Amino acid sequence: MRILRRWRQPASWSIFRQDDRLLLILIAVIVGTCSGLAAVVLNRSLIAMFEWLHHFRHYWWSFIIPAIGAALSALFLDKMVKEGAGHGVPEVIYSVSRYGGLMRFRSSFSRLISSCLTIGSGGSAGPEAPVVMSGAAIGSNIAKFFSLNDRQRVTIVGCGAAGAISSIFNAPIAGMVFSMEIILGEWKAANIVSIAIASVAGTEISRILQGNQIAFSHRLFNVGHLDIVACIGLAIISAAASILLTRLLGSMHGVSKKIPFPTWMRAAAGGCAVGIIGLFLPVVLGEGYHPLRTMIEGVYTQGIGIVTVAFLAKILATSLTLGWGGSGGIFAPCLVIGSLAGLTYHRGLLLLWPSVPWVNEGCFALLGMAGLVSGMLQAPLTGIFLIIEITGSYEVILPLIIVSVISTTLCHYIEPASFYLKELVEKGQLLRQGTDRSVLSDLSVQELLEKDCMVVKQNMLLRNFINIIKKSHRNYFPVEDERTGHFLGIIHLDDIRPYLFNPLMYDAVVLGQMMDTNVEVVYLDDDLSEVLQKMDANRVFSMPVIANKKFIGMISKATLLDKYRKELMVQTDL
Amino acid sequence: MKFSLNDIARCLDLPVSTVDRWIRQGRIPIHRNGNACIFKKSVLEKWAFNHSMPFFLPNEEKEIYKGQNPDLTNLLPAMQLGGVFHDIKGADVESVLKSAVDKVPVLSINKEKLYKRLLEREALTSTGIGKGVAIPHPRAPLPEEIDKPLIITCFLEQSIDFAAVDDKPVCVMFLLLSRSIKNHLHLLSRLAFCVRDDLFVEFLRTYPDTSSFLSRIADCENLLDETD
Lengths: 574, 228
Hints:
The complex is a heterodimer of chains A (about 575) and B (about 230).
Chain A lengths: L1 H7 L5 H5 L1 H35 L9 H17 L8 H10 L8 H14 L7 H18 L4 H20 L2 H13 L4 H22 L14 H34 L4 H18 L8 H9 L6 H20 L7 H22 L8 H17 L2 H12 L5 H18 L4 H9 L8 H7 L2 H4 L7 E2 L4 H10 L4 E5 L6 E6 H8 L10 H4 L7 E2 L4 H11 L3 E6 L2 E7 H16 L2
Chain B lengths: L1 E3 H8 L3 H10 L5 E3 L2 E3 L2 H10 L7 H11 L6 H8 L1 E5 L4 H10 L8 H14 L3 E3 L2 E2 L15 E11 L9 E8 L3 H16 L1 H8 L4 H18 L1
Parallel strand pairs in B: 4-7, 6-8
Antiparallel strand pairs in B: 1-3, 2-3, 5-6, 7-8
Helix pairs in contact in B: 1-2, 5-10, 6-7
C-alpha cells in the first residue's frame, strides 16, 4: 500500500527530492514527446482530411466546405468543450503569467480537433497555435500530476510549447526560442535546460514518425550586396502586411461580434466567404504548406498581378476565417502571406530593374516569411531561427536578420503590442514577472492586513475613549455597532485632537457622534492596484478593510511598501 | 527539518497566506507535503539572508524578543531599591541635593558627577512639581552607571524653598535615576499620579515610616493599574 501511494506521488521519490532539476528534465522529456506526438497527429490528420476533400474541390458548391468545417469547429468549441474561439496562444500566455501555467485538461485536445475541422476543410489558418496550446496544456497537466510548484509548472508549460513547435516544423531551435520569447517572455538558465530537452524530444518524435526532412527545401541562393539593400524595402512591405493583417483581424472580430447570430453561423459565414475566394485563388485555402513549397523552390509561375491579388486575398481570407470564429493560428498564414509578399516584391524589382541580376525569387519568399513572422509576433529571434531551420538556408542569414529586425521595429512602432499580446494588453491581463502589475496582482489584501487597531463601540463616551488612546499604537480607531458588530465609521486622531484636551466634552459626546462615516473601505477580494488608486484619489495612507460588514483590519501604504519590496525581491532573483 | 505552515510563517515573520503562496509558486526553498513543510535549515537561512528577511527558530526568537522589550519597572521596586531616608539635611537646594546624592545606594556611580548633573537640570527649571514635592533627576538617563532604575525617597528635615511651580516649600524629594527615557517617563507619570491625590500629599507630610510609605505606594499603583 505504501509503495502504491509512493507511486502515485512521484514528486516524493527520493531521487527527485535530492535535486528537482533532475525531475524537471525527466518531465521535459515526457512533455516534449507528448506534445510532439500531438503535433504529428494534427499534421497527419490535416493531410488526410485535405486529400479526402480534394475530390470535392472541382464542384461549384465546394465553397461551402470551409463553411461546414468552420461551423462544426465553432459548435465543437462552443457547445462541447465550452472554450472560446481564437488561436489559444494568448490563453497560454495569460495562464503562465497569472495562474502559474494552470490549464484545463480538455485544452490539450480541444484545439486540435477544432483547428483540424477548420483548416482541413479549407479555412485559412495555421495548425501551430492549436498545437502550442495542446502542448502547453499537456505540460500543465503532467506538471500537476507530479505536484510541481508554479515556477516549475511554468517551465513545463514552456516545454510543451517548445516541443510542439519543434515537432511540427522539425525545428528544435525555433521551438526553444518561440517558447522563451513568446510564451515565457523571459530568458533564464533554469528554464533553458528543460525547454531545450523538450525541443529535442519533440523533434526526435517527429523525425521518427515522419522522417528527418527539411520542411521547405530549395536550391542554393547566391545573395549579392544589392539584394541586401533591396531587402530593406521588403521589410517595409512585410511590416505593412503585418499591420494590415492585425488590423483586419481585429476589425473582422468587431464586425462579426455585432451580428446577432450564434457563433457557429458566424463561423459558417466566414468560411463561406473564404470558400468563394478559394474558388478563384486556391492558394488561400488551408494552412498553405504546399504552395509555400513551390514558392520557395521558385517554380510558382503566376505573374505579378495574380501574385499581388493572392497576397491581399490571403490576408483577407485569414482574417475572415479567424475573425469570424474559425479555429486556428496565424503562424502558417503568416508564412504564406510573407512568401507572397516576397514574390510580389521580387516581381516588382524585376519590372523596375530587369537588368540587375537579382537573387532567385525563392530567397525573397523566404525573407518575406521571416518579415511577417517577426512583424506579427514581434519576436525577431523566432522569425530568424524558424526560417533558417525550416529552409536549411544559412546563406541568407544576413538579409534575414535585417528583414526581421526592421519589420519588428516598424510593427512595434505602429502596434505596441504583438498580435498574441494585443488582447491581453488591452484587457490589462499581461503580467510579466517582476513588473509592478505582477507584484500587485500576486499580493492580496489578506496578506497586508494590519490587525493592531483597537475597535471601539459607537456609544462609548469620550472619557473612556481617552484611556483607549493611551494604549493604542495607531491613529485610527474603527467604530462598530455594539449589537451587530457592524462597521460604522472610523475616528482619525488628527480630526479629534482639539477636543481631546477639553475635559468639558469628555462626558458630552459619544464616539458615534465623532466618527467619520463617509470613509472609503476595502474588501478582502479587492484588487490591490485599485486599492492604491483609491488611496491616491482620496489622499489617504490607510484604509479600513471590511468583511461581512465587519472591520477586520487596516491596510496601509507603509506595510504595502514593505511587502511589495519583499515580493519584488522574491519574484526577480530566482 | 519539518515544520507546520504556521510555525514557518512565525519563523520568517510573514503572514501565513504569503508563505503558503510562495511555497505554491516555488519562490521559497520549502517543499510542502500536506500540512508539513519540509526544508533544509541551512538553505532556508541562506535564502532569508539573501532576501534580507529575518529567520529564527521558535526558541531563538523568544530570546530576541525579550531583549528588545524589557518590562518597565514600576514605582515600588524602584523605591525599594533606592531606599527611604528621613534625615536629609540642608537649608537650600544645593545642600539637600548633596546629602541626597550621598544616600544613593549604588557603588558604581560617580556621586560628584551625578550631583553636578542634578544641578544642571535644576538650572534649567526647578523640578519642584508643587504641593511640597520635588523630583530631582539628571537630564539624560544613566544606562551605564546603574543596572535598574531606582528612586531615592528623601524626607527633608526642614522644608526648603525649591522655586517650585506653586512656590510652596518642598518637604519631600524623590531622586529619580533611570536607565532609559521610556522608563523615566513611566516612573514620572506614576509619581505624578500619586501626587495629584491630595490625601497622598497629606500622608507624605506626616513623615511616615518606610514600611507604611511603601505599602501606600503599592496601594496607589494598584489603583493606577485598575483604571488603566
